Structures are given as structure tokens and as C-alpha cells.
Amino acid sequence: MQTNERKTIVSELTTLIETGNAHVSLEETINDIPADLRAEIPPSLPYSIWQLLEHIRITQWDIVEFCLSPDHKSPQWPDEYWPEKTDSVSDEKWTETIEQIKKDRKRFFDLLKNEDTDLYAPLAHGDGQNIFREALLIADHTSYHLGEILVLRRLLKCWKNS
Predict the structure, then answer these.
(1) Hey, is 63 helix, strand or coil?
(2) CA 157 → CA 43, 77, 151, 152, distances in Å?
(3) Which of 42, 84, 92, 156 is the most buried (most CB within 10 A)?
(4) Each residue of 41-80: pLDDT tens digit?
(5) What pTM value is reported for the model?
(6) Structural domains for the chain
(7) pLDDT tens profile 51-60
């Protein structure tokens, strides 16, 4: 793959994960959520904003670890990918989760930007996955759940014009 082509692909994947292109970014989606609404579960829905955010963190961490560590053991699906319901989420825990998402995102971007990383070669420890696919998986999974967070914010009347 030519250097310019690779740089373009890495840049597009990074932008897709960071900003979502066609949807609101993680940062904008979770900005200014009142602490008392983080764990609120609207009627007829199974989860809170907190549970969705923590699920994004766990899943992204698992994908990044899978890409970087051949010996990585994924959490048990679905129980270990979803946090339990809670009555409240401290500012400390909220910030910790957001910072971990950003840290794992950076680790993945470092892998993408590393010229020695073959974006298309199957990972030796996987069953056909490659780094390009895993980047799309992070973007797709995150955007899906960010959309859900926005719906919850609208239902909880804590989104723009709601």
C-alpha cells in the first residue's frame, strides 16, 4: 500500500472514530449530562446513559486489547459487557470511564498510525479479523450506542431543544 493511501485510510478511520462524521461525537453526546440523570432509566427502556457509556468503554477496551495482545481473554458475553443497574454514578466514576475510553482510543490510534501495522492482514490470534475491520467495529459499535444515549437524553429532557 502506498504511503499516501495508507495515511488517508488511517486519517479517515481516526476521524470516523473520533467525530463520527455523520453523527454527534462521544464528547458532545455526553457533555453536560446532569449527575442525577446518569443512572436514570426511562420507562420501557432497559438501560441508563451510564450503562451505555460503560458498555462502550468495556467493548472498546476489549477490541483494543484483542488487537494488541494475543493472550487477551474477552469478557463473557453478555454479562461482563454490561454494568449492573445503579442508583447513581459519582463524578469520579463518570470521569474515570470517559478517560479510559479516550486512553483506549489513543492506544488504538497509535496502532493504526504505526507504519509497521498491516491494516489488512488477519491477526494471527484471531479468526480472520484485521485492524481495518476492528477500526470499523469500534466506530460502528460506538455510534450505535451514542445514538441510544441521545434518545435517552431527549426522553430525560437533557438534550438540545428537548
Answers:
(1) helix
(2) 14, 32, 10, 8
(3) 156
(4) 999 999 999 999 999 999 999 999 999 999 999 999 999 9
(5) 0.96
(6) 3-155 (1.20.120.450)
(7) 999 999 999 9
